[in-house]
Amino acid sequence: xxxxxxxxxxxxxxxxxxxxxxxxxxxxxxxxxxxxxxxxxxxxxxxxxxxxxxxxxxxxxxxxxxxxxxxxxxxxxxxxxxxxxxxxxxxxxxxxxxxxxxxxxxxxxxxxxxxxxxxxxxxxxxxxxxxxxxxxxxxxxxxxxxxxxxxxxxxxxxxxxxxxxxxxxxxxxxxxxxxxxxxxxxxxxxxxxxxxxxxxxxxxxxxxxxxxxxxxxxxxxxxxxxxxxxxxxxxxxxxxxxxxxxxxxxxxxxxxxxxxxxxxxxxxxxxxxxxxxxxxxxxxxxxxxxxxxxxxxxxxxxxxxxxxxxxxxxxxxxxxxxxxxxxxxxxxxxxxxxxxxxxxxxxxxxxxxxxxxxxxxxxxxxxxxxxxxxxxxxxxxxxxxxxxxxxxxxxxxxxx
Length: 400
Ligand code: LMR
Hints:
Layout: H1 14-22, E1 29-30, H2 47-59, H3 72-83, H4 88-91, E2 95-101, H5 102-117, E3 123-128, H6 134-139, E4 144-149, E5 151-152, E6 157-158, H7 160-169, E7 175-179, H8 192-204, E8 208-213, H9 223-226, H10 228-235, E9 241-245, E10 257-263, H11 267-285, H12 291-300, H13 303-333, H14 342-345, E11 350-352, H15 357-367, E12 369-370, E13 376-378, H16 387-399
Parallel strand pairs: 1-12, 3-4, 3-7, 7-8, 8-9
Antiparallel strand pairs: 2-10, 5-6, 9-10, 11-13
Helix pairs in contact: 2-12, 2-13, 3-12, 7-8, 8-10, 13-16, 15-16
This protein binds (2S)-2-hydroxybutanedioic acid.
């Protein structure tokens, strides 16, 4: 049956983790996948999550199916976190929200829904560069991928003029995907003023905006500040679509928990939309898993655990910022050719180092240091114990 099925390529991000796992070296470092590690390089379970686990264990609730759109408390609390409790559209009951299999699942529901119902151009504009998985998620539902400029190699910053030009030039009513904060892979976000301009441009062009918010809290350590773009666009009347993930900010990677939402014109429209979102979800995975939703609802629903969680997000963000400072200092100390200020100015989990694919390969082959071939590093993979070796290895690779 399958003689003609070719070998598929390794995943550009998760394939790095697979290669890392096979490496026997005791010096090995994985700065590939964007998953938080503590100061000892270990996966980190948030204290607020452990407490919520205890509460759930005591409750011994049943394991019945959830509704297709998910756990009701979770969905309510998660959307308040994203949009803000005072969001008018939320209060009006005109946001259709469903639990999703984390951010990827939310994006898949989005593209599934759009491919069935969107009457505008069947094209999704993605930033260049973007998270690698965005492309197959869009293409697998038969939509076309187009790109807008985002990263300026010369300034190692945002190519805001290029971005605006491309979004303006896109056919009216195109779908524009925007990273809400902590852009992956570049770690470079528009400023609040630039977001305001983008809001106007996309509105004037009647574009449909799809936000991917995988890092709320990780960019600045402040969940409100990081939701600025999403909340501002909604305030300004955009009927956005939103993919929300709790993988990073609650450290719930393997629980696969998030939401997909759509801001509608009114409640009646929301009900119609939600009935069709259910039809997208049902054949994909029937209904979502229970545990992650219960964990998030327990934390967001308890003032005490919520406060604790906010402190923990800030702690993770601060440790990453400290690693940025340290890496910059070490690269300078080792007289590494080039300008490395961007390591400090970029935000969120990643730094887009500017290392070439050849340098990335050399780091893997000679130093057992693993990263994606675009030169992105997950700052969270660094700690006091490995940063010296990492910086020294990078320095050597750059010097050739
Ligand atoms: C990443 O970009 O490393 C993360 O979002 C993990 C993933 O699934 O790719």
